[in-house]
Amino acid sequence: MYKVLFLFLFLALPTIAQEAQETDDKKAITAVLTAQQEAWNSYDIETFMEGYWKSDELKFYGAGGVVKGWQNTLERYQKSYPSKAHFGKLRFVLNDISKINEGAYSVMGEYYLTRKVGNTNGIFMLTLKKMDGEWKIISDTSAKVN
Fold first, then answer.
1. Which one, 40, 63, 76, 129, has least CB within 10 Å?
2. Chain mean position to CA 110
């Protein structure tokens, strides 16, 4: 009887460990997006951009088409949100965080931007990858809904 119980526990341990790792990954990814939200609400685009992979391979896909590269993405944000009034207050709603493979996740969510120059909201899908121990957005597809 003890051998069967031991065998059952031994076989269940990898599954339990994998689930714990996924829970930790999802918490860390949520923390990246929370930090971005807080940076945005503090009118701090540089800190907001820390959530993105600082690479020419970063891809942002929005209404203006595909923007490639971290610097180009920063410049796109600066052009689209030229003042504190355009930044407003950002709120993310995370609807799904799914593992793609080891070290990569997709995130589907909504954004709500309340601001004096007119509110806007939309949806997004991100791909995050763990690099050098940190989760970074490697692709961002965002679309306005209103």
1. 63
2. 11
Q: What is the Cα–Cα distance from 7 to 3, expressed in whole angstroms?
A: 6
CA distance 24 to 20: 6
Residue with tokens 């391979």: 57
pLDDT digits (tens, 9 = 90+) for 11-24: 665 656 566 779 99
**Closest by alpha carbon to 142, among 56, 54, 57, 80?**
80
CA distances from 10 to 16, 18, 135 (A): 10, 14, 31
Query: Which token pair is 22?
Result: 């996924």
Q: What is the pTM (predicted TM-score) of this model?
A: 0.85
CA angle 139, 109, 103 (to 5 degrees): 45
